């Protein structure tokens, strides 16, 4: 890769009172990259996400975003630098309408004293409309987010993350609880984002990972086990042993 | 004209004409309860819209009430002569304490009615919310605050009037406040302030600030991880609620002619929350209606059967929480209606 990395993790270790959730994880992501992170339950995938966005602070190691260390910044400042995350359980704002959810996310100037106006700037409204279309919820714009179907909530939250215009999107299990059809739609949605954003997707549904067909990192017991294309990962014996093999048994 | 605006105009007209429509006793009750409803509007803002349950709004009510009562207590005294409020003489205080002096100025007092609770609420909520303490823990801290405040007032009898509080007022800024004409003026001021606060909050909740406050209530972490700092929204809402409570406390003091620890402690603070729970915590008029309804009921019930009121209050709270999560106002607005009504409305629509 000749471009400077957007995100770099340098030997990140997270130690929860003796339990090492992440050990010496190093990772690098280029702008507009699509990266898929897989691994069995408890491998540390969500912890990795938490660490990048500042919900969990690393015990040792550094995280650089656009060559700036972000490990010590408050959460909202990390987001303002350009990293936004979708949570595993849909984190929409239930009593706000779909449109309001997107508008809250699309706010460019997040200073609280600028909040005393009744309507958002036209540019933000336009962007929200655009995203509404992308996530296919145009006919749900006035629906309260809390009464959306599960899959719709997932798409809305992806839309919210996109609306922040962050350069790096972290999507934690965007297909959790979805049927095959919705999963395919989600994959298409994510693929349409690549190019405008760098996307790091966490999942363990192999068919979804194959649909995304991005560079894949396998995490196992808090450590990086393998990195490669989906077909390389598929063919890897060690990965199969810890992860895919087990997934097959689970299915059977 | 829409029915809603017709009702608004009718209510405003009736409220403004009340001094000439009802007896002076009823007017004094209505005035007191309207003063309470300022507190309720603040609770609606913080609890209903911000998800911040405070069980200590009595503190801010008291700060406002005492700020004005101190001036009323000093009115007519010749301070240069060494005059002191009656209770200080009885407590054997030799000279008026320094912090009482500025309150001899009525305008200073009026500013303090809003500023002291406001500054205190801002500092307190900033300190607590900055540590990301919320929910039940916040409710417990505010409850403890109310207890501490009432205890402090009782124990510092020489400076605060102790258990009896401050009472026996006659003039404010040279105007007699005991006549019937004065009662009408005080009522009208109260009414105007309630109306103004109502429209102010209606505007505020319609701005992006309102959306952000509701967003913070729904998912503080989600808001944070969208790049917003939730802290200022919570602090501003809590501060406004404190200022409204202070205003309510001062107006109540004028109507009732007394402010005392029994009016600002734990039990009254919880009652304040019950008003809003009954009226509806997500609707502005619900907070006002709940306050008036519960307090008039309290007045009726406790004059007929004094021992019954606390049971009635408890029952009312349980009823509201289990069957009317949106309070009375929730019956008129769709989203938070109990299932029973929703079904009926759906059937009606089909």
Automatic annotation (TrEMBL), chain A:
GO terms for cellular component: plasma membrane. The keyword Mitochondrion does not apply. Residues 7-246 form the ABC transporter domain. This is ABC transporter urea permease. The keyword ATP-binding applies. It comes from Acidocella aminolytica 101 = DSM 11237. Keywords: ATP-binding, Nucleotide-binding, Transport. GO terms for molecular function: ATP binding; ATP hydrolysis activity. It holds the Pfam family ABC_tran.
From TrEMBL, chain B:
The keyword Transmembrane applies. Pfam families: BPD_transp_2. The chain crosses the membrane at residues 29-47, 59-80, 107-129, 136-154, 185-205, 231-252, 272-296, 308-332. CDD domains: TM_PBP1_LivM_like. It is found in: Cell membrane. Keywords: Cell membrane, Membrane, Transmembrane, Transmembrane helix. The keyword Oxidoreductase does not apply. One of its GO terms (cellular component) is plasma membrane. It is a multi-pass membrane protein. GO terms for molecular function: branched-chain amino acid transmembrane transporter activity. This is ABC transporter urea/amino acid/sugar permease. It comes from Acidocella aminolytica 101 = DSM 11237. The lineage of its organism: Bacteria, Pseudomonadati, Pseudomonadota, Alphaproteobacteria, Acetobacterales.
């Amino acid at each position: 890769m000749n471009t400077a990395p957007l995100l770099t993790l340098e030997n990140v270790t997270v130690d929860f009172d003796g339990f090492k959730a992440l050990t010496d994880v190093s990772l690098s992501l280029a702008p507009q990259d699509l990266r898929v992170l897989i691994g069995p339950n408890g491998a540390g995938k969500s912890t990795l996400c938490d660490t990048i966005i500042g919900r969990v602070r690393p015990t040792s190691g550094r995280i650089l975003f656009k060559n700036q260390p972000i490990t010590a910044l408050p959460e909202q400042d990390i987001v303002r630098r350009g990293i936004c995350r979708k949570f595993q359980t849909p984190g929409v704002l239930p009593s706000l309408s779909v449109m309001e959810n997107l508008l809250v996310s699309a706010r460019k100037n997040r200073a609280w004293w600028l909040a005393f106006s009744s309507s958002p700037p036209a540019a933000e409204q336009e962007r929200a409309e655009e995203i509404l279309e992308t996530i296919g919820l145009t006919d749900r714009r006035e629906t309260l987010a809390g009464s959306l179907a599960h899959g719709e909530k997932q798409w809305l939250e992806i839309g919210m993350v996109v609306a922040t215009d962050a350069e790096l999107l972290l999507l934690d299990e965007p297909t959790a609880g979805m049927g095959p059809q919705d999963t395919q739609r989600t994959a298409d949605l994510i693929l349409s984002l690549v190019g405008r954003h760098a996307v790091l997707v966490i999942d363990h549904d192999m068919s979804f990972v194959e649909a995304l067909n991005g560079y894949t990192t396998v995490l196992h017991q808090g450590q990086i086990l393998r990195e490669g294309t989906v077909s390389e990962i598929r063919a890897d014996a060690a990965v199969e042993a810890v992860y895919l093999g087990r997934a097959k048994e689970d299915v059977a | 004209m829409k029915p809603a605006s017709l009702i608004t105009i009718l209510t405003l007209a009736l409220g403004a004409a009340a001094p000439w429509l009802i007896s002076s006793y009823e007017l004094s009750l209505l005035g007191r309860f309207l003063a309470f409803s300022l507190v309720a509007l603040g609770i609606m803002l913080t609890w209903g819209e911000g998800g911040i349950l405070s069980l200590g709004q009595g503190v801010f009510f008291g700060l406002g009430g005492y700020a004005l009562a101190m001036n009323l207590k000093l009115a007519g005294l010749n301070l240069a002569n060494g005059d002191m409020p009656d209770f200080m003489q009885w407590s054997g205080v030799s000279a008026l304490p320094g912090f009482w002096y500025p309150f001899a100025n009525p305008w200073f007092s009026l500013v303090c009615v809003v500023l002291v609770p406001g500054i205190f609420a801002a500092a307190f909520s900033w300190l607590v919310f900055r540590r990301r303490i919320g929910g039940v823990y916040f409710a417990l801290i505010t409850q403890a605050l109310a207890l501490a405040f009432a205890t402090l007032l009782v124990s510092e009898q020489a400076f605060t009037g102790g258990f009896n509080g401050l009472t026996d007022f006659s003039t404010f800024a040279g105007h007699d406040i005991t006549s019937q004409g004065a009662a009408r003026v005080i009522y009208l001021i109260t009414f105007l302030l309630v109306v103004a606060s109502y429209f102010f909050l209606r505007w505020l909740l319609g701005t992006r600030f309102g959306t952000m406050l509701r967003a913070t209530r729904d998912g503080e972490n989600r808001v944070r991880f969208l790049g917003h700092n939730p802290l200022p929204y919570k602090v501003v809402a809590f501060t406004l609620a404190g200022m409204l409570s202070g205003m309510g406390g001062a107006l109540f003091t004028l109507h009732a002619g007394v402010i005392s620890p029994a009016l600002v402690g734990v039990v009254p603070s919880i009652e304040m929350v019950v008003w809003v729970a009954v009226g509806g915590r997500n609707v502005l008029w619900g907070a006002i209606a709940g306050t008036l309804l519960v307090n008039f009921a309290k007045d009726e019930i406790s004059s007929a059967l004094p021992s019954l009121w606390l049971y009635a209050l408890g029952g009312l709270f349980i009823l509201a929480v289990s069957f009317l999560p949106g309070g009375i106002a929730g019956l008129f607005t769709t989203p938070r209606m109990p299932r029973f009504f929703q079904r009926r409305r759906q059937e009606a629509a089909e």
